Amino acid sequence: MKPVMEAMIDDRQLAIQQVRVLGGYIAKKPINLRSPDIDKHFSADAIATVDHVIDSLEKLTTTDTSRFSHSWGGWKYAHDGETIPYESVFIDNEPLTSEERARGLEVAGKYGLLDT
Question: What is the pLDDT of residues 65-76, one digit of tens each?
Fold first, then answer.
C-alpha cells in the first residue's frame, strides 16, 4: 500500500491529514483529492456494506478497533509481519455445532481425507 499511496500523493490524487482521534492518538487520514469513480468499480451493496462498517466503528477508540480486529481468525493464525489472506474472513472463531462437525466428517470421508 505504501508505494501506491506515495505515487498517489506525488500525482496529487491523495493527501495525508493528521487528525486527533478518540483515545488521544494522532491518526494519518488519507484525503481523496479527486472525484471517486464509485459506480464503475463497486456495487450498491458493496458501498452499503462499507458504510455500515464505518458507522459501526466510528465511535470506537483506536485501541477498541485494534482489539476488535485482532479477535478475528486471520490475526490469530498469522505470524508477525505475515500478510493476512483476505480469505481468512471466512474463519469462524465459534466452535463447530454437532451438525457442522458431522457434515465436515462426511465430506472429508467422501474425498478420502480422513486418517484410517
Answer: 888 888 888 888
Tell if the pTM clears 0.85, that is, is over it: no
Q: Residues for the chain: how many in total?
A: 116
Amino acid at 60: L
3-state secondary structure the chain: CHHHHHHHHHCCCEEEEEEECCCCCEEEEEEECCCCCHHHHCCHHHHHHHHHHHHHHCCCCHHHHHHHHHCCHHHHHCCCCCCCCHHHHHCCCCCCCHHHHHHHHHHHHHCCCCCC
- Residue 43 C-beta-side C-alpha neighbours within 13 Å: 3
How many whole angstroms from its chain centre is CA 51? 14
